[in-house]
Design a protein that fits this description.
0% strand, mainly alpha, Tetratricopeptide repeat protein, Serine Threonine Protein Phosphatase 5, Tetratricopeptide repeat, 11 helices, 2 domains
Length: 249
């Protein structure tokens, strides 16, 4: 198949990037003096760079897919689509939760159409399907909820979005992310102190049963006892607090 000059120019940057990676990994290549670096004192800059690299990788695949669709090169468009799908299926850990999870002081003040649409679309995917379809839909929902928090931090949907993200990360496949889940559950009631969702109890369960942090669990069980309106939740919280104190009834 003859490839036009236009297509060649699209592939050159990709080829150069791959070649550069291979060269960088070649153990036989002597290191230049300026390539030797001392120990890194913080992972913040590295984590920020990783987050941006993930976004740029996704943007590049989307651009390639759209370009090939525009010139009716559907074979290569499908390659980009398949690679994009695999990218979303990869487990992406939050190496710095303090930089991954938004601050607890956000205030849900505005009814914003864009946020409402993102929330609706995300819920349309969440918990739908089986097998790989389920995983793909969970990833789609995760992306949309995260976009909502990033684009509309004053939306009245942020607390609900945080709760849904907590649920997604607690059940994340193939590897659950309980600490990340707990923090998003916490953001739910921190952003909306009168929420009727069981975010306090679910966060307490994670710290209690999974993360083995009884101090944090006790703090959250007290939150449940003081703020939850469900008598069953309050009773469970009081029972666990009594267990911690060695006064089980």
């Amino acid at each position: 198949m003859k490839i036009s000059n236009r297509k060649v120019w699209v592939f050159i940057p990709v080829l150069v990037m791959v070649a550069g990676t291979v060269l960088a990994q070649n153990p036989n290549k002597p290191a230049k003096a300026e390539e030797k670096k001392g120990p890194v004192n913080s992972d913040i800059a590295i984590w920020e760079k990783l987050k941006e690299s993930r976004k740029q990788y996704q943007r590049s695949l989307l651009e390639l897919r759209d370009y090939y669709n525009a010139i009716s090169d559907f074979e290569r468009a499908k390659w980009a689509e398949d690679e994009l799908l695999q990218l979303h299926r990869i487990t992406k850990f939050a190496y710095r939760l303090d930089l991954d999870v938004p601050v607890p002081t956000l205030q849900p003040k505005l009814n914003q159409r864009g946020a409402n649409e993102l929330f609706r679309d995300a819920m349309g995917y969440k918990d739908k399907g089986f097998g790989n379809d389920y995983i793909d839909n969970q990833r789609r929902a995760e992306i949309l909820f995260q976009q909502l928090l990033e684009r509309y931090p004053e939306s009245d949907k942020i607390a609900d979005a945080a709760y849904q993200l907590g649920d997604i990360y607690e059940k994340y496949r193939p590897t659950a992310q309980p600490r990340r889940a707990a923090m998003y559950f916490e953001r739910c009631f921190q952003w909306n102190k009168t929420t009727n969702l069981d975010a306090r109890l679910r966060a307490a369960h994670l710290y209690d049963k999974v993360l083995n942090d009884r101090t944090k669990a006790a703090e959250l069980y007290r939150e449940v006892a003081n703020h939850d309106t469900d008598p069953a939740h309050v009773k469970e919280a009081e029972r666990r607090l009594a267990d911690f104190a060695g006064k089980r009834n």
